[in-house]
């Protein structure tokens, strides 16, 4: 099967929409059971084929009997028919290889859902502008990628964003813990016309049960859950796990940020680039995280860049975040680029959220690629400077964004105060005149002549 599944002619979308528009006086327009049967058949048609794993239980979270759709069967059917009618009117331009209307519409809906999903939004969606930064960084200097991997892939938006930056990606790999989000990820791949043979998305805990541990990837991107809890030293196998053992310490059980970093570095190919979003705390927190951070820089020399992002650009959290870039074979291995893109001039406000504009994204990416020092924006720090700072990566230590206050000349202030006092006397005189005309007492004490 070319697509990995098949449908009967009467199960096509157009046929279901036609039945939903039927004249209710002569024939039934009830399509809920038909729609459920079609989804079941899509999954069944893949059984005992190589695409079975990619379609198995794909629609298990879609409940057409939910009262959230409508209180009665008729009401639910009416809503579903309306949706199908609207979709049936859209020209998906399937013949236009440059357009991906269906896939882009899916991405758009996920983004809108994430905007209203509160704290859970981070589980499945990374804002597109942040995704674009990560994708452009890991594809720098490359037109094709052998493989790309996201260990906390959510809805796959990051993986698909990487594909937009190059001519071809041979293989997509991802892992996601949440079952519903895992199903979203597989749907997203299918709707973006990624062939089932080219993607391998698994549902498991990445740190406790990694599914692609034997593989190495040319590009690694991720937006792991910020400061998540993990079993850490409660699992004795972690201290001997080849992903973590060389660092001498495990990431704390209440902050798995560096555990994800260590996992991704283990999976990174020698010619690969890794870019991940993390909370600012990873830059300066001490104890075991400080030990791991020093090892990454001093012993491995894998850290290539530190990029500070504005606060409040992720759905569900307002904390400031950063992007860390790692390479095992760095072209310039005696310095690290620091970029501070958190200033007010480097983003725009959109309601309660802050957003990066295209020009903000381009400035970040270009500064990284050129490894430039720009006043109050970026700094190329030597490894010696970082060692002098005891491997603390807090961005203000390297990028000086201090703005000097305007010098205050007291003589000018005094002259201005005298002028204001004169103006106030004139205004008070006018108020007294108005009050005399109205026959009322002025709203302030009037000094008598000679006092």
Structural overview:
With 451 residues, this protein is of the alpha/beta class. It has three domains: 9-89, no CATH class; 106-397, Rossmann fold; 407-451, no CATH class. Helices cover 35% and strands 15% of the residues. It has 13 helices and eleven strands. It has helices at residues 13-20, 32-44, 52-55, 73-88, 101-115, 128-138, 157-164, 179-191, 257-267, 287-299, 358-370, 383-388, 410-438; strands spanning 144-150, 168-176, 199-203, 217-222, 268-279, 303-308, 321-327, 335-340, 348-350, 353-355, 378-382. A nine-stranded mixed sheet has the order 3-2-1-4-5-7-6-8-11. A two-stranded antiparallel ribbon has the order 9-10. Strand 4, helix 9 (257-267) and strand 5 form a beta-alpha-beta unit. Helix 6 packs parallel to helix 11. The chain starts with 12 loop residues before the first helix and ends in a 13-residue tail after the last helix. The mean pLDDT is 86.
Topology (elements, then pairings):
Blueprint: H1 13-20, H2 32-44, H3 52-55, H4 73-88, H5 101-115, H6 128-138, E1 144-150, H7 157-164, E2 168-176, H8 179-191, E3 199-203, E4 217-222, H9 257-267, E5 268-279, H10 287-299, E6 303-308, E7 321-327, E8 335-340, E9 348-350, E10 353-355, H11 358-370, E11 378-382, H12 383-388, H13 410-438
Parallel strand pairs: 1-2, 1-4, 2-3, 4-5, 6-8
Antiparallel strand pairs: 5-7, 6-7, 8-11, 9-10
Helix pairs in contact: 1-4, 5-8, 6-7, 6-11
């Amino acid at each position: 099967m070319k697509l990995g599944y098949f449908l009967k002619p009467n199960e096509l979308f157009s046929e279901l929409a036609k039945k939903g528009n039927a004249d209710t006086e002569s024939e039934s327009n009830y399509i809920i059971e038909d729609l459920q049967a079609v989804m079941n058949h899509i999954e069944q048609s893949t059984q005992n084929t190589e695409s079975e794993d990619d379609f198995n239980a794909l629609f298990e979270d879609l409940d057409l009997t939910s009262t959230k759709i409508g209180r009665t069967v008729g009401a639910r059917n009416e809503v579903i028919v309306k949706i199908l009618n609207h979709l049936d009117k859209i020209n998906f331009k399937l013949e236009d290889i440059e357009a991906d209307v269906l896939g882009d519409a899916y991405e758009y809906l996920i983004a809108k859902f994430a905007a209203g999903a509160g704290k859970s939004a981070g589980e499945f969606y990374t804002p597109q502008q942040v995704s674009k930064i990560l994708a452009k960084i890991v594809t720098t200097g490359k037109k094709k990628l052998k493989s790309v991997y996201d260990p906390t892939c959510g809805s796959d938006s990051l993986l698909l964003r990487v594909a937009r930056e190059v001519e071809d990606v041979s293989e997509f790999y991802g892992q996601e813990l949440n079952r519903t989000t895992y199903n979203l990820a597989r749907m997203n791949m299918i709707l973006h016309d990624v062939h089932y043979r080219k993607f391998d998305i698994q549902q498991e805990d990445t740190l406790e049960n990694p599914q692609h541990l034997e593989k190495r990837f040319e590009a690694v991107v991720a937006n792991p859950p910020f400061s998540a809890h993990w079993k850490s030293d409660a699992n004795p196998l972690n201290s001997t796990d080849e992903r973590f053992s060389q660092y001498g310490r495990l990431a704390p059980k209440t902050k798995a940020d560096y555990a994800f970093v260590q996992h991704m570095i283990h999976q990174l190919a020698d010619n690969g680039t890794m870019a991940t979003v993390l909370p600012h705390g990873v830059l300066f927190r001490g104890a075991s995280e400080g030990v791991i951070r020093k090892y990454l820089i001093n012993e491995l020399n894998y850290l290539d860049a530190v990029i500070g992002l504005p606060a409040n650009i992720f759905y569900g959290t307002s904390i400031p975040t950063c992007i860390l870039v790692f390479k095992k074979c760095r072209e310039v291995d005696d310095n690290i680029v620091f970029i501070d893109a958190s200033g007010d001039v480097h983003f725009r406000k959109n309601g309660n959220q802050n957003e990066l504009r295209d020009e903000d994204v381009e400035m970040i990416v270009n500064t990284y690629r050129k490894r430039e020092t720009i006043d109050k924006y970026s700094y190329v720090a030597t490894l010696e400077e970082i060692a002098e700072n005891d491997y603390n990566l807090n961005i203000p230590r390297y990028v000086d964004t201090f703005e000097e206050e305007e010098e205050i000349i007291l003589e000018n202030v005094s002259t201005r105060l005298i002028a204001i006092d004169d103006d106030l006397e004139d205004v008070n005189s006018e108020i007294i005149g108005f009050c005399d005309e109205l026959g009322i007492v002025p709203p302030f004490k009037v000094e008598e002549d000679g006092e």
